[in-house]
Amino acid sequence: MVTATLRPSTVLVNETVILHNVAHALARLDAGTELFAVVKADAYGHGLLRVARVAEKAGATGFCVAVLDEALALRQAHFTQPILVLGLIEPQYAPVAAANHISVPVASAAWLEAALPLLTSEKLPPLAIHLAIDTGMGRIGFQTIAQMQDALAVIGKQPECFDVAGIFTHFSTADEKDTAYFEMQARRFNAFTAALPKRPRYVHVSNSATSLWHAACNGNMIRFGVAMYGLNPSGHAIPEVPYALEPALSLVSQIVFCKQVHQGDAISYGATYRASGDEFIGTVPMGYADGWLRRMQGFHVLIDGQFCEIVGRVCMDQFMVRMPKAYPAGTPVVLVGQSGDQSISLQDVADYSDTIHYEIACSLAARLPRQSVAPIE
Ligand SMILES: *Cc1c(COP(=O)(O)O)cnc(C)c1O
């Protein structure tokens, strides 16, 4: 992927804000409870290595990623902390994980059976595994204690190949006001941990939402994701948070072309927008190939502290806005962030496009360069 560094469209990442968000979360944890920074999907679009470095400085003692390649990228950048891959890997890659001291989830005895011969045949450290328990998320994990015990029996055949380093589950409703389903999942998880012959080093259930609103359940490690980036995991559902979440990401560009159009003049593909009189139209060099989706037509950006409507269809690499006056090429455009007294949040963008801020942040393409603001040290 080519990153467009010679174009003014840029994702700005405020490192100091991330540092504070992590520090606030850590301050609420019981002594001995660790925070693993969830940096999957290029740190939710914020930049994997930059965020990992800031999280480490803030006191994160490990990382969670989605896929093995992300874990290897951290190892290549010389991060030595524990790394947990959250998604299942194929058994054939178990030796790669072991060799790089990367922990992986296990959700079946069959997976262990398939990985076992690959781990004995090489001079490898034991593969660190975390038992994934499906308490109601319905995604990955053991559904019954019997299934988990079958897996432990496979491990028992050659215990030197595996290190049972953790047990975990994932809540599906931790960001909702009604806690009944959450409590059911927590009860189920407790039954699984009680059935283990030995408590592993890491017992963890908390994503950001759980850490914010169900802190009693934290176990001895939290998987801290979206709140590190300053986003409320619930969207609007639970506005009350124990500490202020400050968004770390802004998205900026510049006007590259300005023109005046007259009544009836059309803008962009399909000629869906017609000027209703004399209007100033600015062109912004970003489009759906950058993750600024077509459905953003009719939304707005900020120019000089004023909301300007996105008019006409968003193109692959450019879109147009209606401006209150002629703003020349080079005028700053804020798509997400602050301009004058006004601001646009990722949540606003998500609301307009009928999705969640997680999806907007992750959709920002690799073509957009990431630039640090307020860098730490
Ligand atoms: C992505 C993920 C997290 C982090 O969730 P946030 O809501 O971003 O805090 C935690 N645990 C698992 C299993 C995940 O997949």
From TrEMBL:
SMART domains: Ala_racemase_C (SM01005). The gene is alr. Its EC number is 5.1.1.1. Residues 248-373 form the Alanine racemase C-terminal domain. Gene3D superfamilies: Alanine racemase (3.20.20.10), Lyase, Ornithine Decarboxylase, Chain A, domain 1 (2.40.37.10). The keyword Endoplasmic reticulum does not apply. The modification N6-(pyridoxal phosphate)lysine is found at residue 40. Its cofactor is pyridoxal 5'-phosphate. Substrate binds at residues 139, 316. Pathway: Amino-acid biosynthesis; D-alanine biosynthesis; D-alanine from L-alanine: step 1/1. GO terms for molecular function: alanine racemase activity. This is Alanine racemase.
